Amino acid sequence: MSDRFISIEGIARRFPVPGVGTTTVFEDLWLSMLRGEFVCMIGHSGCGKTTVLNILAGLDAPSNGTVIVDGQAIEGPSLDRAVIFQSHALLPWRTVIGNVAYAVSSKWRNWSSVQVAAYAQKFIDLVGLKGAEHKRPAELSGGMKQRVGIARALSIEPKIMLMDEPFSALDALTRGTLQDEVRRVCQETGQTVFMITHDVDEAIYLADKIVLMTNGPGAVLAEIVENPLPRERTRNEFHKHPLYYATRNHIIDFLVSRSRTFINETRGTYDPRNVAVVCPGLPEPAIARTYDTSAKPNRGQQFAAH
Amino acid sequence: MKMASLTGRAAVVSFALLFSFLLAWHLATRGSGTAQHMDPEYAKLMGATATQGKSAMPGPIDVGVKLWEHLRRPFYDNGPNDKGVGIQLVFSIARVLIGYLLAMLVAIPVGFLIGMSPLMSKALDPFIQVLKPISPLAWMPLALYTIKDSSLSAIFVIFICSLWPTMINTAFGVASVRREWLNVAKTLEVGTLRRAFTIILPAAAPTILTGMRISIGIAWLVIVAAEMLVGGTGIGYFVWNEWNNLSITNVITAILAIGLVGMLLDFVLARLTRLVTFPE
Ligand SMILES: Nc1ncnc2c1ncn2[C@@H]1O[C@H](COP(=O)(O)OP(=O)(O)O)[C@@H](O)[C@H]1O
Ligand SMILES: [Mg+2]
After folding, report:
1. B184:A85 CB<8 A
2. Which residue's C-alpha comes closest to atom 1 of ligand 1?
3. Residue B172 and residue B175: Cα distance in Å, rounded?
4. Which of A255, B109, B168, B254 is the most exposed place for a label (fewest CB within 10 A)?
5. What is the pairing mode between strands A221-226 and A209-213?
């Protein structure tokens, strides 16, 4: 068996609805991720992306099914899985360094405060917040707050980073800079990342695989798009790649129409355990093969040789 | 010419109001008319009030003189019925602080429990709803009967009346801590106790202190009434005693002192609230 680092195995999540009974956000959802992989999930609002992420984080429990991380079923939140919240979720009564130090001292409980502060400072420098250590969150811009959130998540040296639309509240310029930084840091540290986004370009720039989720309720994973762009890509160049538009159009086409119709069109043939893997740019039909985790995504390297 | 600052202008208006009030008070209580003809023996019995047409209500100058006397000798002690205002205030403040602090020791942990546990919240709610509207003075006979000590009974009454605002505010503050902050603690595997002290307490502190501020205000309101009932010492007893002595001057002086101490207590709590309030 391959190095299946995260394995979501047939999870479902139902919420009680007063008067109606229950609503099923999704059920029988399967997905696996490799170690060091950057996976983005795209889908319309309300389809259940945050619910998936909360289950991965251990903040929410699935109604059915399990999630295995590194060979163990998760039973709750863990310091191995850091979460970057959409609303940054900084503690407003603590300073920047206080927020990061809170995470550090939670992970290494017997460290002295000097050790904790020095270590926290390292990550504040890493995200470019040197000089703002003693500011309170209320004095920071949205981008700076999100940087603190990133520093806090990185500081506990997690095995997995979970990000819920981390940049959606930021202006385009700040978003770009932070994307670059997250990309750099994740590559340097070999992070495994699961990120939710609304932004197709963001997904193409950052992700190795892009998971497309249909509209809810009863959402399913429609496809896994393998990013055909080389792993070494830059913000200024990636959209000039010959397969950039094919990838982008494929995803946008999904969001515009197929996210609505997918379930009806594939009724009877859809297999939640073998979600189609798509490599944009290949001749039609775009579906190259079913999902096989033993196959390494190496197409990027081929195109890099162009 | 530049306009003076808002504070400056407000101070001018305040002084003008105070001056007009003092002037009106002075004019209203000034002696009027001449002494009526009456038997000198009878006039002696009646005192100046009746004989010189002077109002029984003291004027601001009388009160000012009295106030000055008290300020010069706040802590004199000529036996149980004649103690300085300062001593009486110290007695009252001590009772309030003891009862109040004991109440905080109970109200904050119980409020935490109610705020954190929906079960306890539901279970304790009927008791709180019934106990809260009871006038604290209604407990007095029960307290006197069981405790058998007037001073302790007054403290008990302060305890009871300080309890509710702080408990209810604490419960509310704890229950409404933002979910995302709790999620931060969860993802960092922070234990229950550490979470209570590092997330819930700072997040709820402004609400808790607002409750504590309401509590101290009520406690100071209640102590005067309680001491009027139980007697012995304290500013409430002083007011009642001076009323029995028909010394309206002393009563007014005491009223002023009660107001000032109440303001001071509120000021301290307001300061503390500011200290724990965080901008969002
Ligand atoms: N606590 C909850 N109770 C009831 N319904 C919920 C709850 N949380 C989420 N939902 C529902 O689940 C669906 C998916 O929500 P969410 O995962 O937040 O969507 P997304 O992040 O994709 O926008 C939504 O329709 C939402 O109304
Ligand atoms: Mg969401």
Report:
1. yes
2. A15
3. 5
4. B109
5. antiparallel
By C-alpha distance, the chain B residue nearest A87 is B180
Q: For a pocket test of ligand 1, which of A44, A51, A56, A212 has the largest count of ligand atoms closer than 8 A to its C-beta?
A: A51
The SS3 of residue A118 is helix
State the average pLDDT over residues B21-43. Answer: 74
Give B210 or A283, the one with higher predicted confidence.
B210
Name residues of chain A where pLDDT drops below 70: 1-3, 282-306
Query: 3-state DSSP helix/strand/coil percent for chain B, to nearest 5?
Result: 80, 0, 20
CA-CA distance, A137 to A90, in Å (whole number)?
7
Beta bridge partners of A163: A84, A195
What's the whole-number mean pLDDT along residues B177-186?
95
pLDDT at A301: 40
Q: What is the rounded CA–CA span in Å between residue A107 and residue A122?
A: 15
- In the prediction, which pLDDT does B67 show? 86
Q: Do A81 and B187 touch (CB under 8 A)?
A: yes
Say what percent of chain B tops pLDDT 90. 68
Q: What is the ipTM of this complex?
A: 0.86
Dihedral pair phi/psi, residue A27, rounded to 5°? -145, 160
Helix axis angle for B235-244 and B85-116, nearest 10°, is 140
Q: Which two tokens stand for residue A32?
A: 């696996």
Mean of the per-residue pLDDT values for chain B?
Answer: 89
The two tokens of residue A26 are: 């999704």
Output the six-digit token pair for A227.
């990013």
Helix (H), strand (E) at residue A303: helix A299-304
Q: Do B187 and A59 touch (CB under 8 A)?
A: yes
